[in-house]
Amino acid sequence: MSTREERVQVLRMIETGKITAEEGAKLLEALEQSDGPEGGLSSPGRPKWFRVRVSDKVTGKTKVNVNIPMGLVSVGMRMGARFAPEMSDVNMAELMQAVKAGASGKILEVDDEQDGEHVEIYVE
Predict the structure, then answer these.
(1) From the CB of residue 79, how many other CB atoms can be counted at a distance below 10 Å?
(2) How far is CA 41 from the centre of its chain?
(3) How far is it, in rounded angstroms, from Cα 122 to Cα 48?
(4) How many domains in the chain?
């Protein structure tokens, strides 16, 4: 079952402008759909969070820090592609397959030289 914390996190992402209200509605809908026994990717012993960190390469300061429940990972991957267009050369289907297969830890690290950003994606 989706937790109150997960719903509040989606609402905070809307409030801070990290996602649009429409994207937030889709996330909340996906949370409801993941409540069923086969709805989400999360299960005992499997990773529970999909984490995206974007930091400034010069200062090391975190610019974006998004944590998405694994039940919403497919929605999160589509949104993540929007935030990091430099990842267009990354095969998102392969990345998604790795996540579904149970990959954990840091699964992607990308440097965006043009914007001076360092992007890391973790499954924990």
Answers:
(1) 21
(2) 13
(3) 11
(4) 1
